[in-house]
Amino acid sequence: MTGGTLAVVAILVAAAILVVVWGVRSRRGPRDARPPYILALSALADGDPASALEEFKNAVRIDSTNVDAYLRLGDLFRDRGEPERGHQIHRELATRHKLSTGLRSKIHLSLCRDLVELGRLEKAEEEAREAVRLAEDPGEALEVQLSVLEKLGDIEGAFRVRREALKRRGNLKSGAGELAEFRARQGLSLLEKGELKQAEKVLRDALKLDEKNVLARRTRGALHEKKGDYPATIEDWSAILRDTPEDTASLLAELERVHFLNGTYSEMETIYSRLLERTSGHEEASFGLARFLRRKGRIDEALDICRRALDTRPESESLRVLRLALLLDAERTAEAETVLNQWIGALLGHEPTIPDDAPADASGPPPLETAP
Questions:
Q1: Lowest mean pLDDT: which of 155-164, 192-201, 277-286?
Q2: What is the rounded distance in angstroms from the CA atom of residue 325 to the CA atom of residue 266?
Q3: How far apart are CA 17 and CA 10, in angstroms?
């Protein structure tokens, strides 16, 4: 084959390759000409972290000074289960000079999150504290620090951070109720762990912030019960009923139990009656009083309580069931049957009826056919 022939063959092969490449690119559509960093941000906005990670890799290859790209790349590594790689990237960023304080705060916050995933909570809290110190608006950093302190079981540290967050928002005075609720939840957590002395102190703090806080008073009542001081429990929980009668369903049942333990169960009649005087038709109080009267054998009074409550709360299944039981207790079976049929009809969407011309046993099963 001559030199000229070889040249022609080479040209033809090159042309064929160009045609193939052009065809592939045509099928793929036009290449996105945007910089990788912009493509990565777009992928994040579209909820595509895998593509974002690849584009951030490209972005830092092109421009190693793009700190935000490195920061987000480390976060993506952590979020996909590689916190060590993320931590390595963020740790290198923290050594760079001439970064703004805002950017340094973000780096320390990412380091904190890396360390949480790595189980190094004490070091994570240090990084969160530094992020708070550097941030112009430390709201997010304070929330992360609070989370770490709670994981560490640092009750007092978490409370200080929650108070600092309210202070930074300018809500320290108006947010006293919110802070009391937070402190009360801490008290409840301590009580559930059996740390009664610490729980008592924390609940005392909560009630100093808001003496009417329901969770704090309810938890303090439970604490008194744990210590065997039933009268103190009754005092705390009865006060809640007086102040907030609209949210008492489970508390009434708990109060019944403690009165029983205290040997003062008969006082529940007065508690239920007073609650009904204040809130006519109160479902839980009506049910409790009617059930109390039933136990005392005062069936007619209990039925009257159920009837009046059902006028206000006709959808209450607990009152309907109790009323049915009371009618059977009173041997008013015909009335009980009527009530039951009405209830079944309401559930089915119609009243069960029997035709006027039906035989006497039409309500029973059809007779068996006999062989001819």
A1: 277-286
A2: 22
A3: 11
Beta strands in 118-182 (DSSP E): none
Distance CA 157, CA 121 (A): 14
String of DSSP letters for 189-210 = HHHHTT-HHHHHHHHHHHHHH-
What is the enclosing helix (H) or strand (E) of 3?
helix 3-28
pLDDT exceeds 80 at position 165: yes
pTM for the model stands at: 0.71
Distances (CA, A) of 279 to 273, 302, 312: 10, 18, 11
H runs (alpha helix) in 268-351: 268-278, 283-295, 299-312, 317-329, 333-348
Distance in angstroms (rounded) separating the CA atoms of residues 64 and 70: 8
Ordered structural domains, the chain, with CATH: 65-169 (1.25.40.10), 264-348 (1.25.40.10)
**74-88: per-residue pLDDT in tens?**
999 999 999 999 999
Cβ pair 60, 83 in contact under 8 A = no
Q: What is the 8-class DSSP label of residue 48?
A: -
Q: Which three-class secondary structure state does DSSP give residue 321?
A: helix
